[in-house]
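Write out a sequence, fold above all:
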Amino acid sequence: MSLTYTAGSLVAARGREWVVLPESAPDMLVLRPLGGSEDDVAAVFPAFEDVRPAEFAAPSPADLGDQRAAGLLRTALRIGFRSGAGPFRSLAAIAVEPRAYQLVPLLMALRQRTVRLLISDDVGIGKTVEAGLIAKELLAQGEATRLAVLCSPSLAEQWQAELREKFGIDAELVLASTVSRLERNLELGQSLFDRHPFTIISTDFIKSTRHREDFVRHCPDLVIVDEAHSCVAADDTTQGGTSSAANQLRYELLRKVSADPDRHLLLLTATPHSGKESAFRNLLGLVRPELARLNLESPAERAKLAEHFVARKRADVRTYLTKEDGLADDSLAERTAFPSDRWTKDEPYKLTPAYRALLDDAIAYARDRVQAAGEQGKREARIAWWSVIALLRSMVSSPAAAAQTLKTRSESATARTAQEADALGSPVAADSAENDRLEGMDVAPGAAESEDAGARLLELSGRAAELVGPAEDAKLKALTRHLKGLIADGYHPIVFCRYIPTADYLAAQLEGKLGKKTKIAAVTGTLSPQQRLERIEQLAVEAAEEGGDPAVRRVLIATDCLSEGVNLQHHFDAVVHYDLAWNPTRHDQREGRVDRYGQKRDQVRVITMYGEDNGIDGKVLEVLFKKHRQILKDLGISVSVPDETASGVTDAVVQWLLLHGRQGSQESLFDLDGHQESFDRIEREWSSAAEREKTSRSKYAQRAIHPEEVAREVAAVRAALGGADEVRSFALEALRELEALVRDPRDGSGDFTAQPGGAPAGLRDALAATLGGRLVEEDREIPFRTTPAIGRGEAALVRTDPAIGAIASYVLDSALDANTSGPRPARRCGVVTTDAVTIRTTLLLVRYRFHLTLPSRTGERQLVAEDARLLAYEGTPSRARWLDDDAAAALLAAQATANTHELTARNAIAKDLGGLPDLAGHLTEYGTRLAAELDASHRRVRKANEEIVRGLKVVPQEPADVLGVYVYLPQQPAPAAPASTVSGAEA
């Protein structure tokens, strides 16, 4: 007759010990190895295999460790936890240590039965991590079973990598380029959204009628929408024009997705309220329909919105959980390493005589063409207008772009009406802040209005082609000078340009001009989104292969296909705007790729190049950029420039240029007749939008979760899982004990390096699997960083870093197996003589297991979780006087101040090991109390959702496992030296 085992109990099978999981049945046990992860779960059939009850073996008195043994074993155990007992089921299983402020959206989510959030934190704060935390938690709790992320196709691979590497969610890409392959593997009548539980979907692809309806029918129960502002439409035209057709299609899709009241929905955007009130309300309506009708002037109504809306600037979270946030002290204060400064400089250049003559002739051609087309009709006038803009923009970009444009037909030339000409010409000639897509926008536009470019344009094209190189291209010569300066100062710059021919031209011209140790690569729209990321990674690898030479620099030449959403802060720290965009918002987007959380530089450098005598750049800089910067300086926030405002300014610049030529370039645009009134209107509109943005930032500031609530949960998480200082000390000590070559510069950064060549083979193999085989095989220095933002071949000093996990696993396994060959940093027993105690004191490292019943809207979930605690008592086991938790933890810092006699050590540890049965009652009582605290923590986090906490249970599984026993003896006056002693460092 087979025994029945309860969830959480220990059994022995297959030569090891296991924990019984709730999914077990009498005829089949689902087991997880003791101390193992969910990846190691196995099914065992008692009828066919030997399964018997087991108890965790007590430590052996013959296997004594030194004064550091307890701390190393405790940290190794906690790092290995992947199933913590607290209310956050996922934090122990993710490969990123979230900042405290990033827990705020998670706390907001856990208080809702159906999660509906608009996360509108500033650029670079970490909205992807915040959304990933919520998704991982909902999946871990069983509140969600499937996930879809809707995003731009250019960001799909980045989302896939973030979810896989940081959150262990392996999602399938659903793009125009992958859907055929995915559909070939479907069964008859099966939807690919049912076949693949986790998907990342291109919003451009899914908005088509055929795929939209299939997605809506089989939509997952959790949906994340990135750049959500591009998926809503404005109802009115008074605050910024009509919405694009693509926005309308996306909006209709999301309306259908959000219509299911039981579907979790996370909307992410850094610009929720950019001056279009109706679009903002439509965005709120996707979260919950009633939010669109709120009176946002009413504090009570805004309080309702605050339950679903979080919007914070960097200044709000740079320093968090301090006295200024209402806390009693700064013990939990967290300072996030955003760059504190953005050094900016406008750098002018002047055209060479040959280039100036070419531009004058191009302007003359443009003037003649616009005048002639104006006499032919409105359609012809608009075609000519966009052709002229394309010509002028390419001309001031580079001779390569000019040559290409001058012999290519204009896209607007195929238009049948003036409206169609505007629709075709505007996206490729302007720099919209709200382009439906950036894909294809970096192709050099055409200026010819027929298949035959015409002799005049071909002659100009030939002249442009002759101006390549620094001799006649002063802009290129100036760029080379600026890059050399940045490189000399230790920077790795990105050069942003408007057109593909310009990027390719710069990459070719700069090769070999910036020093032998500078690696250069170009990324443009000719590459797929995945190939772009691979090209960037390849550039980083090539630089890293120089053996860590500090003189090696990376320079990336890119078009605006990389200006939005892509994270580049780990590899680059400076931006050069080679081509001045016609909307300052585009510059914000470019700079935001490197000036964000994870940037190691405290100061990011930005250089904006402009032609002071080309008749265009100076005017755009004067009107648009200086106003944009003044608003940023006055209000402390960057306000998106409405497209209508930017295009109004640039239209006036081109009109002025055609009217006056370059010779009037020193004349102010505002001094010209006919322009003052329009620019006054633009000034008013932009200032109004800025004021609305400032008001909305303060009006909708995050107040749903008080910092005290965050602090309480952060303290609980750190108590259960450990903090950064503990992890650093553990890694440093363990690597030294495992005979790796460790170099700690003690420069205040906390960083150190380690060469693993002398470490045991098992540890080297584990590190090779996480950091790269070549790095370990060649015994290179591995940097261990205190910041979670790390590069290739580096390890972060956080408990969830795979390299730290590998070290912890080796330390724990070797401590539990006394037969392990080689160094064993941690042991399960120790005896230390110290002046830190005045009476014999014993420290216990105890592992508790809990059987959790977690109610959810989909039913109850049964889970087994673990927790490790330190307990300490004074005196003998039979008459133990128990210390509080703080006093127990303080013993870890006790240092040996005298040698301990070998016989004394063995007698002392044997006495405490023999007295373990006398401690069983207190260990059980402590476990019951801990279960009650965990129960209260679960209820506190979900306090606003009574339905989810009804039926919650946390039951301790007896007996607890005593992993370690460490005796601290008070130092006595030294008697005569005994014949045999054990040193404090070995006892």
Remarks:
- The two ends are 48 Å apart (CA to CA).
- The first helix runs from residue 69 to 80.
